[in-house]
Amino acid sequence: MARPPRSASVDSRRRLFEAAAAEFAARGYAGANVDRIARAARLNKAMIYYHFKSKAALYREILRDMFTAVGTRVADVAAASCTPEDKVRAFVEAIAAEAEARPHFPPIWLREIAEGGGHLDAATLNYARAVVATLGRIIEEGCRAGRFKPAQPMLVHGGIIAPLMFFLATARVRRKMQRAGAAGVADIPPKVVVAHIQRLTLAVLEGRIA
Amino acid sequence: MARPPRSASVDSRRRLFEAAAAEFAARGYAGANVDRIARAARLNKAMIYYHFKSKAALYREILRDMFTAVGTRVADVAAASCTPEDKVRAFVEAIAAEAEARPHFPPIWLREIAEGGGHLDAATLNYARAVVATLGRIIEEGCRAGRFKPAQPMLVHGGIIAPLMFFLATARVRRKMQRAGAAGVADIPPKVVVAHIQRLTLAVLEGRIA
DNA sequence: GTCTATAAATAGATAGAC
DNA sequence: GTCTATCTATTTATAGAC
Fold first, then answer.
1. Residue B159 counted as domain residue
2. At what angle do helices A84-101 and A105-115 cross, to 10 degrees?
3. For A153-163, how does the pLDDT look when each residue is reduced to its tens digit (9 = 90+)?
């Protein structure tokens, strides 16, 4: 006996959300086309305006989803009871995991950086801010424990997310370059990148790179 | 006695090029508006089509200018006669210098990454490829001299340009976050970032981060 | 070389039927 | 909730005068 089907609209809303995320990732906010989004979701334009207020509102919802997911996840990391070193590793791992769960995440994040955060409303900007602040607290804790040297949280944060987003977002271009003849450019598994960034970050925090 | 004025069109072409670079950096390819570009250059739309074939061709020319500038500059670095360590430092410095000379450079580069290099024609893609290859040769040289451990050129390259573009491109967002209350987020001078990345890269190549 | 005016296409948003 | 049809604004691109 089949379970009573949930309202079809819940599903169509989710399909539109997914399709929109993919479209915004591939073409950016301005380049995205609501008609194409609707068709990718096997629906039509009008349904976007039924479920969302506008193209801009739809985009903001995707941004909020992204940044709140990362924000709450790293907050959990900071609250855990383990060494500062493990928290740093978990911090990197957490961002990578959220990014891998959402393939559209890295391109959209990169674009928002390029845009100067023009599409971020105050609340979402706050979540982005909180991520850096969380890392700052982990660093402080490590300093108090005598394991880390003091460091600018923003500098460390950039050192983590920039290469992470770069490698996750460039998988496609790198394959393109590989086909064009560059050797050993494409086959760098995410695991390797994450491990590399974890080691790098700890080396910085422990003052081993001067 | 005034020098005979060069043809006015040379100047108007350059003005359009500059205005276009700024527009593409701020809004991306799709978000850019040829009318706005023309007005920013104190000219009109028709002049864009007089000097350039199309919006797409204009954009491609900006990309080519960017990547050829970096490509030839790092080629000089690799050809210099100095230690591999100094070449690595100069490599980072060279990219930073070209990026600082063109404020539109980091945002556009970030967007191209996000886009998967969709706007890069074969020739320009080749220049991007050449930059990585050049770094690869510097690494090899260091390995032969027994100073570097073998490393994936692409991994090292990403570790350089990702944080570099990130910090140069985020100056604006970071100021926005600072105004919203985050402390010590905005005031990281480019010099500090470059020095940090130079040390980081050398630590990786010398096998000091494992 | 530079301009105005306009053609032609595209895309965000809504009305209204079912 | 979902669709078709359409309105309206925007925008790339060109024609043609000066």
1. yes
2. 100
3. 999 999 999 99
